[in-house]
Predict the 3D structure of the following.
Amino acid sequence: MTNFSYFRPGDLNSAIGDLITHEGAKFIAGGTNLLDLMKENVERPARLVDINQLSFNSIEETEGGGLRLGALMTNADTAYHENVQNRYPLLSHAILAGASAQLRNMATNGGNLFQRTRCYYFYDLATPCNKREPGSGCGAIRGFNRIHAILGTSDQKPETACIATHPSDMCVALAALDAVVRVTGLAGERTIPFADFHRLPGDEPWRDNTINPGELVTAIDLPAKGFPQYYAYIKLRDRASYAFALVSVAVALEIENNRITDARIALGGVAHKPWRKPDAEAMLIGQAVSVADFQSVAEALTEGAKGYGHNTFKIELAKRAIVRALQQAAKLEPTP
Amino acid sequence: MITYVGKPVNRVDGVAKVTGKAKYAAEYKVPDLVHGWVISSEIAKGTITRIQTDEALQLPGVIQVFTHENRPDLAWFDLSYKDQDAPPGSPFRPLRDAEIKFSGQPIALVVAETLELARYAASLIRVEYEVENHETEFEAHLSRARDPKLGLASLLKPPPPKPRGNFDEAFAAAPVQVSGEYVHSAEHHNPMEMFASTVVYEKNDKLTIYDKTQGAQNSQLYVSQVFGLSFKDVRVISSYIGGAFGSGLRPQYQLFLAVLAARELRRSVRVSLTRQQMFTFGHRPVTIQDIKLGASEDGTITAIRHDAFAETSRFEDYTEIVVNWSGMLYPIPNSKLTYKLVPLDVFTPLDMRAPGGVTGVPALECAIDELAFKLGIDPVELRLKNYTDRDMDADLPYSSKELRECFRQGAERFGWANRNPQPRSTRRGHTLIGWGMATGIWDATQGPARAEAVLTVNGKLRVSSATADIGTGTYTIMTQIAADTLGMPIADVLFKLGDSDMPLAPIEGGSWTAATVGSAVKVACEELGKKLFKMARKMKNSPFARANLDDVLFADAHIRLKSDPSVAVSLREIVDQNGGHAVSETSTSTPNFLKLRKYARSAHSAAFVEVEVDEDFGTVRVTRAVTAVAGGRILNPKTARSQILGGMVWGISKALEEESVLDHQFGRFMNHSLAEYHVPVNADIQNLDVIFVDETDTIVNPLGVKGLGEIGIVAMPAAIANAVFHATGKRIRNLPITLDKLL
């Protein structure tokens, strides 16, 4: 760990101003991921701007009938919030499938969006990693890649190769719910649709998201539609709790008169961002629940999936998880 | 009279542990302490061409960086670096030269005034290497397999027995045959407590060392020999250990580095490893086993071939007993057993809970299950049909063996009689339910040890021996034995351990501490009792003037006449008349080898397991497990049960989760954190049940105990794998059974 200075601003403007005027500065909220990475020398911020004094720690109704989740609300307080549990149970379930009770008590909603990958090579300075050290190569692609991505990877050029996944559970549900991220920077406030917030590795695997330097996430807006009736979150992992997803699936359905009228499917653990494919979801619209062809949807969602050896099993596992999650959401299967 | 042995006495060290009063090696406060941070090699093989330490050394507060370039001259011969658990070969010497032998090798120690500074300074050190090709892929180098070198370690770990009968003919003639290749991955011990040493630099260059070790005297021996010090100048203390599982059987490299720095700087030094560095030394070796079984149609097993290949380092031949178990468990007339090593560019493997036993027995017990299925015989029935009261390899009868009773009681508690033998016969929705069972066996050994028993001037009993308690309950059971032997209330008995100044005890492992140190404690207390009785007889108006030792008993802190217990002298009275001095006795207990050599001695177990497998996802959950243990006399049912539960949990871990994965591009274990090296969490552990069957053994040792440290894990992996087969119809011979293997 390197030396760093520390500043705890009292308002948003000084937080942003301080970050911009100090090279190598980083925001810190719950610190559940950043501190670990600092201890491993993966992150070496010169300054930590602690935003915990800022007032983004509430959950409020939006004008459009949705909910605004403050960036500094903890994951635990969000998951157990009455309005979240009742109106967005998918989100509540996804959050509680992640980490441990202790971590969820510290981790914030904003911080959850900025979790870095759990790729072994990203964490180990003795190995190459384009995400950690641009241009150094990817250790995982020919190495131990059990937990790695099968969709949207970057594997053509050694200097930009990356098969890392985004590790969040919460973000998979937020992607399915079409959440909107509110950020504030020097230029003022803007909103980013959730699908555009995280990015695929492409030619810049070191960039996890599309936020600009100096911008701070202040809230996550949930649209009015919360799919409280027909939803499922399945997380498959190497032990019953406290492990990252090998594959996770968030499904949200709207069903009227036994016909599917809206469908969202997001996958976790398979790509550099929560994976959605609107045309695959569209296959479900208008179908009768009892005869819907979930297998074809699963095939369409995972189209183009590519395994790298240890993780090839994820392709089949993802398909099976999609089918099961659709069955559970449609109440064709009991939810355990 | 109150007795304690056999009662569920609470841990005597429990309060100290849960209130933080128990101190671990890295927790001792020492004045003017400086801190070392270990730098680990990033390559698996090659040579250090340059180490740039200038930038680190320029930081105020950084005291020194030790590397191979400035290491002082130390012991010359390999022998000096051999600890009590060293396998044949040439022990690794940290900072010896520029050569890199394995990834993660300690190559420098940064010493600074604070831990944070040492850690930061370490990040400024640049190392350049000349990289050579490493070989770490076990399966790719099987052709290099060779017989292990023999050495002192072979006494405790004998090579495979000579072939019996004629395997080839018998197998060829057997109407029913099974064969399979069984593999399990490397595992690291990963105790909660990281390895650490706090070296206190005392007056006259003496060292007091708080070390995480399973043998304080083993660390003392190592430090004395390597640094050319006399025993009296090196005291090693290891009062509490936050788990070890075998990893503390050898001194780890932080001890060497901390002592080196302390002696060079003439200051007290602490070195503690990180979790990542816990993956840079001994581990359970990757092992591949081929097993062939032949049987007649009635289920009599007639032939076995068991060939094991295990990994070791380039510099030492670590061995385990992997293939010898079949002859101990089954009366198979024709057998051929081999065990070979493949040296790789890794650190030397190291004993880990039930070393070899939980490697070889699960493979054998899966093969037996495969045979039972092929024969259409119930797995318990097949084992009973091939039951033996003799160890076929040693050709000796067992001193005791209540395995039959383990099968009976375990099966009854589990409800085994209701099992439908057909795989995939039980399901609930997508969940397949399977039942499996397996046998476990582990050696019941005893070594020599010494103990001191002291009746203090306050009339309390203080007993000590230089053994260790790695969480197993040693403190508690020794206190119980001492209290009973001298008839003292347990509150007046203090047992101490983990100090090299105490009477000699061997390294704590192999399930032999209860028998070894327990016998020494018993003898020391008996000898002290004799001495006290003699003193009582000489007292003025002694009621024992005409009595012999046989005429008295020790109860309620008194010596009493057996014929009239009201005639008594209190132990306090005796010590009061000793001129203000305590009364002490130090004794040695040695196994009765003449008697023991006529018998085979083992603990046995039977595990019964229920698993639920999601047929689409391949996720396995152990929903229920019963382990019945024949482990001789149970000194403390509470700590004993915890021992077995811990073994069962690790069995689940080994069967389903645990695996250190080497990336052969870098020759490096990659999942070196507890986030990615999976061990069970609470949610993985459901209904576990332990049965101790009655087993009386008058031969194995004076206490009749067999040790319980390993037996709890041995049967579990095969029972789980067999249950997974019963649930799914899929035979997974490669542990751990992660979900991808069942898709």
Residues 25-133+191-274 of chain B form a domain with the Aldehyde Oxidoreductase; domain 3 fold (CATH 3.90.1170.50). Chain B has three domains: 25-133+191-274, 141-187+283-445+597-742, 447-590. The CA atoms of residues 213 and 644 of chain B lie 22 Å apart.
